[in-house]
Amino acid sequence: MSLMLSGCEIQPVIAEADPIPTTGTTRYEPSSVGGQLLLAEAFLQDPDGDPARAIPLYESAARQSADPALAARATAVARQYGSKEATERALAVWLERAPMSLQAHEAGFVIALESNDSARAIEHLTTLLDASDDYKTQWISSLLSRAPSEDRQLWISRLAELAKARANTSLAMVVTEQMLNQGLAGKQWLDDWLDRHAAYDALLLYRPAAIGVLKRLPRDQQSIDVRAQLARWIGLEGDDQGALTLLSAIVAEDPKRDRDRLTLALLSIQLGDVEAAETHLKRLLASSELRSTAYYHLGDLARLAGDQTRAIDRFLRVDQGELIVDARKHLAQLAVETGNPEQAGRWFQEARLLYPHLAPNLYVAEARFLAGRDNPEAVIARLSEAIGQHPDNPDLRYSRALAYAERNQIEDAERDLRAILALNPDSIDALNALGYTLADQTDRFDEALELIEKALNGAPDSPAILDSMGWVLLKLGRLDEALPYFEKAWTTMQDHEIAAHYGEALWRLGRQAEAWEIWNQGFASEPESDIIKTTIERLTNP
Fold first, then answer.
1. Helix (H, G, I), strand (E, B), or coil: what is residue 22?
2. Within 10 Å of residue 494's Cβ, how many Cβ atoms?
3. In terms of pLDDT, which residue wins out, 221 or 144?
4. Which of 145, 225, 315, 363 is the 20 to 30 Å CA partner of 484?
């Protein structure tokens, strides 16, 4: 939702403006609306000036004018550059000029939230809901998530009271989501709300607690859309056969429901009924929207059946959407399987010519294919070619940086990662990759720590970044501090590289039995893990 807090177009009547003097020491005080606006905008646009000087000018102009757009602009300027009091004064004028303006009440909700005034925020939201029975409230969810944690439950309880009395599905969704995020009984609340308002058809995009309610509905109260959504939810809950039964009935009732037919085909594949899947997918070849998707899955089925010629033909027919890239990945592997690996490069090149908007993604896919063929020189050459054509694409530079790092060309890797950070200083992937590379392959540990800390601030639960933090702390000799990071990373993802690092930390702390246990678990996920083998050899054969 776009709130009118970031500015609005104001076009003052210039002919009414007072002339703005350019010399002298007397402070200019324009009296007309036009003059005040001109001077206010001059203050806002002066890079060396004080934008707060525009606030009283806009406030005065808004009070003189009956135009609510001017009061909206005054509110935006006050909120951006001024005090809470100035913002409240400007908002009051806006509401006076346009008491039923949805944008004014949306702004009032935001401002009240920022002031932690839940009672006034509920007043504004009540006005919005009174104006439209199906007013969409999803936009407030992210705002509530930014409220101080100690105040959030009060906000939720006030919203729940408001939502309980209204059949507004989007508000019920917001309340349930916020309750679940806070560990409250959101599913029970939604169950009660559904029973109270019977707003079942409106739940097409919501899942928690609704499955049981929809199952209890009499058939004549279940629209076909509700039954289709119920089938998807049941599948997500792990009942594939139940989902398949429901979707089969739906597609039999309305054969034109192509997306439901696609879901039915994928469920059939999952349940091992290849013949039924083929039948549904071939029906979808008549759908302009889903034809490529159908060819992609038909190609997959042909490949699994060992029919490489038919698989190639089907994957080559994928000509829409992101599946083009995945189809070319499959074609590259088929080129190897059929003894013609050079054809892989030609298929990638053909796709770049046919679908230039996907060229960077296709270059990255080809580079990964070449890396799997143990051809690092070709990887770097192909990515360098791509970067020559797309110099500002971060994915290409990131991929080449990793390729350089694998070849211990640290200066080259750092150059690419620094180029990404020059364009986006907050790139989490680049910060982590550069920090880990410096920690792992240089002695620039303090610099590495700074980079990884910044990455971790942006993604505090990322197992890769947690592992990087543990690794740089280990390198700095801070083993007791490193261990919790490895533990959290390992709990999130049992990756063999994390196992190598976690085991080393345990070993160095004298906990050898635990180290062996972690390494053995790492081998279970990657039996030929070179990094675990190298770590064990280094620690056991000093």
1. coil
2. 16
3. 144
4. 145
Pick from 16-30, 180-194, 331-345, 439-453: least confident = 16-30
The yes-or-no verdict on residue 309 having pLDDT over 60 is: yes
Q: How long a stretch of residues is the chain?
A: 542
Could you tell me the CATH superfamily of domain 1-131?
A: Tetratricopeptide repeat domain (1.25.40.10)
Residue 29 has a pLDDT of 62
Rounded Cα gap, residues 418 and 208, in angstroms: 44
pLDDT at 297 over 60: yes
For the four alpha carbons of 73, 75, 81 and 82, in that order, the dihedral sign comes to positive
Query: Which amino acid would we find at residue 205?
Result: L
Pairwise CA distance, residues 464 & 157, whole Å: 37
pLDDT tens for 172-223 read 878 877 776 666 776 677 777 777 776 555 554 454 455 565 566 566 656 7
Which residue, 412, 411, 392, 413, is CA-closest to 402? 413
pTM, 2 dp: 0.59
Give 178-216 as a 3 state SS string.
HHHHCCCCHHHHHHHHHHHHCCHHHHCCCCCCHHHHHHH
Lowest mean pLDDT among 94-103, 133-142, 177-186, 450-459: 177-186
DSSP state of 297: H
Amino acid at 434: L
The closest of 328, 362, 360 to 347, measured between CA atoms, is 328
DSSP 129-170: HHH-TT---THHHHHHHTS-HHHHHHHHHHHHHHHHT---HH
Are residues 363 and 370 in contact, defined by beta-carbon separation less than 8 angstroms? no
DSSP states along 332-387: HHHHHHTT-THHHHHHHHHHHHH-GGGHHHHHHHHHHHHHHTT-HHHHHHHHHHHH
Amino acid of residue 223: S
Residues in Cβ contact with 190 at an 8 Å cutoff, skipping those fewer than 6 apart:
172, 176, 208, 209, 210
Helix extents (H) in 22-168: 33-45, 54-64, 68-81, 84-97, 102-114, 118-131, 139-145, 149-164
Reading phi first (left if > 0) and then psi (alpha if -120 to 50, else beta), residue 8 is in beta
Which H helix or E strand runs over 460?
none
Q: Where are the domains of the chain?
A: 1-131
CB atoms within 10 A of CB 511: 15
Please report, rounded to a whole number, the percentage of residues in the chain having pLDDT higher than 90. Answer: 47
- How far is it, in rounded angstroms, from Cα 43 to Cα 54? 6
Confidence of residue 57 (pLDDT cuts 50, 70, 90): confident
